[in-house]
C-alpha cells in the first residue's frame, strides 16, 4: 500500500511523523511545499523539506518549532560580529544540510534526488518528494509591499496585512517525477492534506500544474486535516491570513477552499459544532499534536477515516 | 610612505603582521596569493587571504597554523554524520567569513572589494590586496597525478613528488586595480617578498602578467626574506619541493630563483655562511618568528635593510 500526504512545515510535519509511525515502512509519500525555498548566503534553504527531514528523523527542535534540537550558533555569532544580516537564523549543524544540498544541486542533481539522498542518510523510511524540481516562489502582497515568503514569515513575523499570495513560476513548474509516480502507483490507498497553512503551504503545491488535476481525478479518498482550532492555527498565521483575505476563519470556509479536492475534513473536537455547516463528511478528533502519541492517534484516525468517506469526483 | 609585501599564507602572514606593527598605520599593502583559492561546498575559500586576515586581526589559531583560534566544529561533525567529505576542515566561525565573501561575490563585488570590506570589519589597518580579481588556480603535477593545490596540500599532505607547478588561467589574469595603484603610489618606499613558499605562494603572484614587470622595473628596493632555515621551511614543503624539482634547497638557489627581482636577501643567522655563495647583498637575522616580538624585530630589520641595498634594475 501507499499513501500520499501533502505537507508544509511544522503542523504538516507533525501529522507526517504520525503517519510514518502507523503506516507500513515506506508506505508514506510526502509531497512537500517548496514555495518557501530561497537562497541565503548562496545556500539553498528549503524550510518545509528541512522541517520534514528533521521532524521525521527525530532531530527537530521541540522548543523552537524549526531547525534542529542539538544546535549551536557559532557561525551566526561570527556573522553578527562581521556586521551582517542575521534575521534568518542558521544553526551550525543545520548549515551542513544546506551545504550538502547546495553542492549536490550545483553538481546537477535534482532537488528530488538530493532530498532522497538526505532522507536516506537521516534514516527516514518515508519518501519526501519536492512538489517540483522547478523554482516556485511564494510572494506575499501586503500593506507593507511585496515580500518574499521568508521576509514575510521570519523577518516581519507575519505582521503585515496580507492582500494577495502569488506563487511565482508556478505556471511553468513541472510536477516532479517522484510525485507523478506516487500518484500513479497502483497501490495508492489515500491522499491526505496535512494541517499546514492552506494558503501558504498547501496552495503552492496545488498551484503546480497537474497536481490539482491529479487530486481532482483521484480514485482514492482524499481527507484534509484542518489546521484550525477555535478559528486559530496552533502555530502560524492561518487564522490571521483568512481574516485579512476576507475569508471567515472557519472550518466551513476551509472545506469550501478545498471543494472538489477532498472527500472528508477532520476537525478538532472543540469545533465539533462546525460540522453542521459543512457539506462534506466531517470527522471529529483532537487535532492538537503535542506528543508523539497524539500524532500517532490522529494519524490512525485519519487513516481509518478513509474507510468511511468515498471519493467525490468532480464531473 | 607605503610598502608592498607579496605574501602567501602562514610564514608570509607572520612577517606581514610584524610589518603592520612597525610601519605607520595604513602604510602596508599586502599583495596576496589567490592561486590556492577554490570553491568548496559552493563557498569561495581563499586560504592565503584568510590566513592574512586572521593573523593580522589577531584571530588566527596559533596551534593549528590555519583557521581561527576560538573555533568550533559542529557543522563539520554534522557533515561527517551525513557521510560527506571532510578532508578540508571548515570551522563554524570560519564559515561566516566564507558565506559573507561568497554572497558578496555573487552580488557582483570583486574579490578586491570583498577583501577590503572584510579587513575593515576585522579592524585591520593594512591593505590586503588579492593579486588579481580573475581566477588563477595552482595545479601541482605529481607522481600521483595532477592535483588541485588544496588536494595536494591538505588532502595528500604534500606527500606526492612534485614534477611541475602550473598556474592555470594566469596568462589571462589581470593585475587587480588595488595592486596597480599600490605599485604606482608615489610614496612607495620598498617591496618585500615574504618568507612564503617561493614556488607555491610567491610564483603565482609573479605569474600574473604585469606584476613581475612592475617589480623588475622598480625604483625602490626589493628585499626577499628566505623561508629556509637549514635547508628546510619552518612549516610547509619548500625544501621538499625544491629537492623534487631538482633544485638544491639552499639560499643561493633561492637568490637565483628571484634574480632580477630582488636587491637583497634576508637569511637566518644559522645559515650565515650561505652568504658567500650569493651574488647579492645578504642580510643576516634570526628569521624564526615564534612570538610577536620576533615578528616585529624581523620586520624592523627588513625595513631598515632597504637603506643598505639599492635597486639593481634589469636592463
In words, what does this structure look like?
- The structure is a homodimer of 315-residue chains.
- Chain A has 315 residues and is of the alpha/beta class.
- The first copy, chain A, is built from twelve helices and 14 strands.
- Chain A has a seven-stranded parallel beta sheet with strand order 5-2-1-9-10-13-14, sandwiched between helices.
- In chain A, strand 1, helix 1 and strand 2 form a beta-alpha-beta unit.
- Chain A is globular.
- Chain A starts with a strand and ends in a 10-residue tail after the last helix.
- The A-B interface holds A 41-43, 71-72, 74-79, 82-84, 91-93, 95-97, 99-100, 102-103, 106, 118, 121-122 and B 41-43, 71-72, 74-79, 82-84, 91-93, 95-97, 99-100, 102-103, 106, 118, 121-122.
Amino acid at each position: 500500500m501507499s499513501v500520499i500526504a501533502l505537507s508544509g512545515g511544522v503542523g504538516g510535519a507533525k501529522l507526517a511523523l504520525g503517519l510514518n509511525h502507523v503506516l507500513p515502512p515506506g508506505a508514506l509519500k510526502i509531497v512537500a511545499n517548496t514555495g518557501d525555498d530561497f537562497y541565503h548566503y548562496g545556500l539553498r534553504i528549503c524550510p518545509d523539506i528541512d522541517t520534514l527531514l528533521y521532524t521525521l528523523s527525530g532531530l527537530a527542535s521541540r522548543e523552537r518549532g524549526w531547525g534542529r534540537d542539538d544546535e549551536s550558533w557559532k557561525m551566526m555569532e561570527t556573522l553578527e560580529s562581521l556586521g551582517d544580516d542575521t534575521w534568518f537564523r542558521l544553526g551550525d549543524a543545520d548549515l551542513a544540510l544546506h551545504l550538502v544540498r547546495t553542492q549536490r544541486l550545483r553538481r546537477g542533481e535534482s532537488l528530488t534526488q538530493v532530498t532522497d539522498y538526505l532522507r536516506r542518510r537521516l534514516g527516514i523510511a518515508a519518501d519526501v518528494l519536492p512538489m517540483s524540481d522547478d523554482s516556485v516562489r511564494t510572494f506575499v502582497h501586503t500593506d507593507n509591499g511585496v515580500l518574499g515568503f521568508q521576509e514575510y514569515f521570519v523577518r516581519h513575523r507575519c505582521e503585515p496585512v496580507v492582500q494577495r499570495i502569488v506563487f511565482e513560476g508556478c505556471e511553468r513548474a513541472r510536477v516532479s517525477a517522484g510525485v507523478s509516480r506516487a500518484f500513479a502507483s497502483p497501490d495508492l490507498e489515500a491522499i491526505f492534506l496535512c494541517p499546514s497553512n492552506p494558503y501558504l503551504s498547501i496552495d503552492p503545491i496545488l498551484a503546480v500544474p497537474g497536481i490539482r488535476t491529479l487530486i481532482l481525478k483521484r480514485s482514492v479518498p482524499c481527507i484534509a486535516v484542518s489546521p484550525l482550532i477555535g478559528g486559530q492555527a496552533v502555530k502560524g498565521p492561518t487564522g490571521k491570513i483568512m481574516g485579512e483575505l476576507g475569508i471567515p476563519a472557519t472550518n466551513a470556509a476551509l472545506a469550501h477552499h478545498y471543494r472538489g479536492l477532498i472527500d472528508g475534513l477532520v476537525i478538532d473536537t472543540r469545533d465539533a459544532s462546525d460540522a453542521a455547516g459543512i457539506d462534506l463528511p466531517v470527522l471529529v478528533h483532537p487535532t492538537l499534536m503535542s506528543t508523539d502519541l497524539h500524532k500517532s492517534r490522529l494519524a490512525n484516525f485519519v487513516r481509518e477515516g478513509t474507510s468511511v468517506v468515498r471519493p467525490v469526483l468532480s464531473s
